[in-house]
Amino acid sequence: MSDLDLLTVGEALVSLRSSGPLAVGGPLTMHLAGAESNVAIGLARLGHRAAWVGRVSDDELGEFVLRQLRAEGVDTAGVRRDPDRPSGLMFLERRTADVSRVRYHRAGSAGSALCVDDLRAPLAAGPRLLHLTGITPALSDSARDAATWAVRTAAESGIPVCLDVNYRSGLWSREQARSTLAPLAGYASVVVASADELDLVAEPDADENAAVADLLRGGVRTVLVKLGADGARAHTADGVRHVPAVPVTAVDTVGAGDAFTAGYLSGHLDGLDLVDRLRRAVALGAFAVAGHGDWEGLPRRDELSLITGSAAGTTLR
Amino acid sequence: MSDLDLLTVGEALVSLRSSGPLAVGGPLTMHLAGAESNVAIGLARLGHRAAWVGRVSDDELGEFVLRQLRAEGVDTAGVRRDPDRPSGLMFLERRTADVSRVRYHRAGSAGSALCVDDLRAPLAAGPRLLHLTGITPALSDSARDAATWAVRTAAESGIPVCLDVNYRSGLWSREQARSTLAPLAGYASVVVASADELDLVAEPDADENAAVADLLRGGVRTVLVKLGADGARAHTADGVRHVPAVPVTAVDTVGAGDAFTAGYLSGHLDGLDLVDRLRRAVALGAFAVAGHGDWEGLPRRDELSLITGSAAGTTLR
Amino acid sequence: MSDLDLLTVGEALVSLRSSGPLAVGGPLTMHLAGAESNVAIGLARLGHRAAWVGRVSDDELGEFVLRQLRAEGVDTAGVRRDPDRPSGLMFLERRTADVSRVRYHRAGSAGSALCVDDLRAPLAAGPRLLHLTGITPALSDSARDAATWAVRTAAESGIPVCLDVNYRSGLWSREQARSTLAPLAGYASVVVASADELDLVAEPDADENAAVADLLRGGVRTVLVKLGADGARAHTADGVRHVPAVPVTAVDTVGAGDAFTAGYLSGHLDGLDLVDRLRRAVALGAFAVAGHGDWEGLPRRDELSLITGSAAGTTLR
Amino acid sequence: MSDLDLLTVGEALVSLRSSGPLAVGGPLTMHLAGAESNVAIGLARLGHRAAWVGRVSDDELGEFVLRQLRAEGVDTAGVRRDPDRPSGLMFLERRTADVSRVRYHRAGSAGSALCVDDLRAPLAAGPRLLHLTGITPALSDSARDAATWAVRTAAESGIPVCLDVNYRSGLWSREQARSTLAPLAGYASVVVASADELDLVAEPDADENAAVADLLRGGVRTVLVKLGADGARAHTADGVRHVPAVPVTAVDTVGAGDAFTAGYLSGHLDGLDLVDRLRRAVALGAFAVAGHGDWEGLPRRDELSLITGSAAGTTLR
Amino acid sequence: MSDLDLLTVGEALVSLRSSGPLAVGGPLTMHLAGAESNVAIGLARLGHRAAWVGRVSDDELGEFVLRQLRAEGVDTAGVRRDPDRPSGLMFLERRTADVSRVRYHRAGSAGSALCVDDLRAPLAAGPRLLHLTGITPALSDSARDAATWAVRTAAESGIPVCLDVNYRSGLWSREQARSTLAPLAGYASVVVASADELDLVAEPDADENAAVADLLRGGVRTVLVKLGADGARAHTADGVRHVPAVPVTAVDTVGAGDAFTAGYLSGHLDGLDLVDRLRRAVALGAFAVAGHGDWEGLPRRDELSLITGSAAGTTLR
Amino acid sequence: MSDLDLLTVGEALVSLRSSGPLAVGGPLTMHLAGAESNVAIGLARLGHRAAWVGRVSDDELGEFVLRQLRAEGVDTAGVRRDPDRPSGLMFLERRTADVSRVRYHRAGSAGSALCVDDLRAPLAAGPRLLHLTGITPALSDSARDAATWAVRTAAESGIPVCLDVNYRSGLWSREQARSTLAPLAGYASVVVASADELDLVAEPDADENAAVADLLRGGVRTVLVKLGADGARAHTADGVRHVPAVPVTAVDTVGAGDAFTAGYLSGHLDGLDLVDRLRRAVALGAFAVAGHGDWEGLPRRDELSLITGSAAGTTLR
């Protein structure tokens, strides 16, 4: 795991997707899911060396998770197999053409048993970046301790930390989230959030400008605000920049935020300036929503030009 | 079948759906279809006690129909198995992205052999509402007699009748339809029609206002005019009310009219006022068109809020 | 339709196949079915010029039937489109691994409206052989007249007739079948039957030898008795010959009898002697049962050696 | 729930089936699973009035379970929706043509929260028979208490109890199972077990005869020993009877034991003598293994003759 | 092949379609593909007598190609089976909702071995029209010679030639294409091109008007410019006519250009005037894009009205 | 690629599988195929460090190959992407239940362009074993040179070489194969062959004993003869040992020989004695034939006991 560009930490789930109302039954498809593993895949597809660390079950579902990560070229050397706990699952139901619903089966999962010891070796190897989301500290006490330890340790070692707020109302309340995430944000170099998540890493009910000011004051270098179809904004000490979204036919919005983050971090690793990082971020977001699956549609480096240009349609060569 | 909220009468078909041109072949999926059973399912999903009565074949296809109705919680105690006649079938062909075609195989079917005796016991049990469509009297002489008897008997017993015109040009001419349906409408409390069906329960070539005036004069309390993407209008003695459609991504318009009627009748049973009944009606229509299948996408009561609110997209909990 | 090797006459159905219990629902696949069209396809695959004549509906299902026949190279120039009647259907349900069930929806079908006029031109073109089955005369009065006329006319014109008894208990009683089929057999050159069908073209309750003696006395040249896994017997004036079945893994027995007949007639057209005709007949039967579908597994001429030789397994070239 | 023939109590799961190695991924199909609900379905298909009682989650998966039970005509009036716990799941992996593997995700499930109060009303309604398995008391303390209470209460009320040992090594040890199940067996009228489960309701390491003697002495009237492909034995005070299995092509052995029990109990309800009950039991077992799914292949009453007769193959009518 | 309305010459490929990113794997569907065979199918569906000539492999893939062509009623009597060369393949990957990618495996294919001798007999039979595309001369030297010979011979025999430029950058450069295609255009009566292909049959960098002037001067009677969603323009000596596209929901743009050409040629064969030919052309283009597959959605003559009228939606008869 | 247990060299193909006759069409599934990559996967699944080296296309199909190998944990660091050549393909057609057919599209493929330079680094890294098959030298001159160089270099470096004869009649004649393979066998430590392949690495028409004597005399230590359902024989200087096959339900024999070799080499790496190596070899062969796909059914180490024990059937835990 030496020479890593990115280390991500979290829980990887087996996502079971329906193409219609779940109550009626019908076939499900199996997918790897997980906000952090999505980011790792996004970077690996672009040729960066990315690792994912976490716990997976010691059965076929854990094996499935590992096969998918390895297939994508994500380093899994630091993954722990938990012999006592099952894989976390999620059902992703296509309820209508416009409405999808998620139901988690992750209480007591292998992934939620993440602890500090799981992270010592991977972090000691010295990755160039560390990425976490606000989901991990919500999984369990030990996972919260692990996330906190990792963020603090990285910051102390000079490894820039990226934190995506990623609030999940099914896991904890906004108050619980704020009390855990706001301190974490203090160690982060980059904070990613949607507009309605910003006050979870700042004062309650703070508006965007106030929350950003808080964060920048606390040491964050860049605050990225995801705006969906409206693109994204980046706040830094130098001010704010906005880029619009890339217009595509959206078929599946799950994973778009993770793709956005992966694009931004890829631009960072490539030494791009802020606006070009944002452009890559929204480009990856566009790939994510224009294809089915959380990450299956993400581009390799040679594919980046496919949808940033204006000409869509079939390419006949 | 005591304490029923709604009794529906009609023919339930086995619908065989293709996802492309039928002449090219390919897999078909089996579905329960039928305007009246769609309405019964719509109400049962919302928690009302709904029954469907009709004849089904005494073979695997009849069993399929019953399994689907039972699965949806529709009371099937009054259904008759016909040992001598096959199930009615329909092929629903997705010819292009915009054009679907229906071809019926229902001549001589079990469902078309419906007769007065099939309806005596269910109606005697005293449902709160009776619903029929203009399809049933077009199926056979005995079915027409049964529909006429049911509507008249219900009206005489003080059971409000809802009649959906539902003109099918493959079954009879407009003239034949008018001569049968106009008298039926005289017994109805609620008449449902699309704009071009109104003159089938009024004078030939009557425009909407003239037709409505006729119907109200004849004793109808409410005339509902389905306007598709333009929503719906309700005419009563107090005047006319309009509600717009709920904007959704439409993927399958089949069953939208039945969903509309189910929503209206549910509002009636819940004691809503006219505009709120219409709102529920168009909401159910929106669910119907936003999902595949005639009725598979209809909401349970706890799902009603899913698409009437403004926020679409994936719900992550 | 000149220079035809074989003319077949009958009803072609759209077969809807389930892979499990039909009452539970699930996807269905569309197939062309029909005893006579199966024989035509069997011969066309082997390079003979074969035609099928009958009536098909003037809609997408009729188009489907024609597409399949044309794809297989069967001459369809004599087929009539019936604008007023639907396609005959059959549901083929895989009830258990060992038990399949068939349910017909063919009453009043286009195919059952076959009449003498439909056959005049095709027969006048002078095919080398005419093939019919005992299903056709059971479909309707006009179909029975057409079958009778065709057999008699062919016999009078010196065109050898092959008659497969193919008794369907759902269409008529054994007594009805015997009264129609026994006279037809008098015009046949080749009669094909399973052991329990022989007395339908002879005296009631006649055993195999008695029935065969009757038939040979009446002018039949060859009586073929299909024995399933035990192969087949051929009776002629010269005595009886038996060939065993070709051992294969059987996955679908539907269509095996038609494949057998096609193999025999192909051997006849190729001038093979009796035992080699039987060998080709049982070889085609083996292809039919070793593949899914009524006729999809039948061999082209260059494939005949695939399962008559002893070496099974994957061929790596 | 009045006039019930059979009341079953247990946990119903959502079974997710793969058709190949799970680690490789691929589509999964959703099925209702559960030893007790399988028995209820088996009896309902044969026309008996059967109910299933248990807890299901208050979400789409719980709705799926209810839809399946209702579709099969199983009375679900006594089912409780648990708003706080998820559905129990199982993955059924087809690892090789001969080996399937099951992995449960049922810890903390709604079904495992079953308690005595859930059963009071259903049992007070006075079913003719009560059926439980040894799985339920292994799920949780409250479920064990509920099972014990139900068996004792039924026995005291004169309702015959059927207990299927159904040992699951993933849920408890043999010692734990024995200490719970042996007392339960004391209340049972019928005990069902495979040969290696008998000592779980008798002395440790008891052989079949010793265990049976123990059970009969303790008040059990009939001990049924399932022998798989060797059929089954029934021990009573009058001695032992054996019936062979019905030979079929086995494609899926899951659910065979439950089908066996359903057949036996159906024979009991129909007043058959012991050997005929066993014959129906092995017939239902044969249906179960000859079809895919736990219960999908079970017969309706009119289908019982399909595989007890000797002639297999396609039925052409 | 007598009395042919249209002869087309080219390579028919087996197209393997994915519904998502190809690198991830998943099922592929097999389709017949080929610009010229698409045109032949388009005309055959409308009732014209159309033939396709080319070489196909002498194996199962060649057989697949022939089955599809025969199914569509395209005359295949002139097709040659090449025993030494494989079928040409193409992978059609649905990369995102908006971007499809094509990868050819056609080097050294049977189709690319087309030569003059393959075309002598078909052309000598005297079709009413000859259609070629700019793909064929790019396949090989012998194919180029064959295309050139055919176009010249047809022109000399008074058979009008239609040439669709159809530039494929994967097969040759624009310069190579121009040097071959510009002379071919000199023999054509109708030239079809997209706006950016026009200069491949005229002077380099010529704009539309200049290129058209060149072509008309060289003897071309009609130049058709395909404008996609903007419809099409036709240039003749009498000036230029434009027709807008027919608005439909586009799901698959592959094959739209071939459908356009088929519609135009059908109008020519039916004696329509220029604008009505263009209307049929854009109507067929609309059918092509509104359905999946290169040609599967093309209309029969009785279906032409389905999408030219204004009323879309389900047709209930 | 340091500390490798096994290095394999060859061509990896994309296999397109049908479930029925290919000429009829239908869906295909994509699989990784290749005798050498199968062996690498077999060892990687058992926990050995295995690498595969070869050339793959620089497009989506090459990416697919790499994703599959990485998913299985096979080291792909030495793989070369060839920008100029397409992926080799094979169609694997399930013609009947017993007969599968393979058709290669591999002429001019990236894999066939393998050359000595591709192998220098991987071999220099010093794997514990080198495995090749007789397919690679048949692909091209450069591939033959590369295979010869690798075998000779390994032998000279003290790396034991395993050579599987794997004769493919579609690639070369027996005489061509013998002239190339017999010298290669001289460098091998282990030679694997089916009985009818032995004389390709010995004298023409040599029987098994003569061929083995030749090979042992030439320096081979172990000659393994694959006997399919009869198990396998191992010849060494100490004599001959035989082990029977493990009885399983065979559903797909493709890949069985490669699985056998993987099992043998795994036993070798684990230090098992000859008979235990053979036992593992036939066990892996059994896994391969009991599952669909070339390698998908191969066991992980913890799964080895699943089918070597006697008890088959569903494992309920």
UniProtKB/TrEMBL annotation, chains A, B, C, D, E, F:
Residues 24-298 form the Carbohydrate kinase PfkB domain. Pfam families: PfkB (PF00294). PROSITE patterns: PFKB_KINASES_2. Keywords: ATP-binding, Kinase, Nucleotide-binding, Transferase. SUPFAM superfamilies: Ribokinase-like. One of its GO terms (molecular function) is ATP binding. CDD domains: KdgK. Belongs to the carbohydrate kinase PfkB family. This is Sugar kinase.
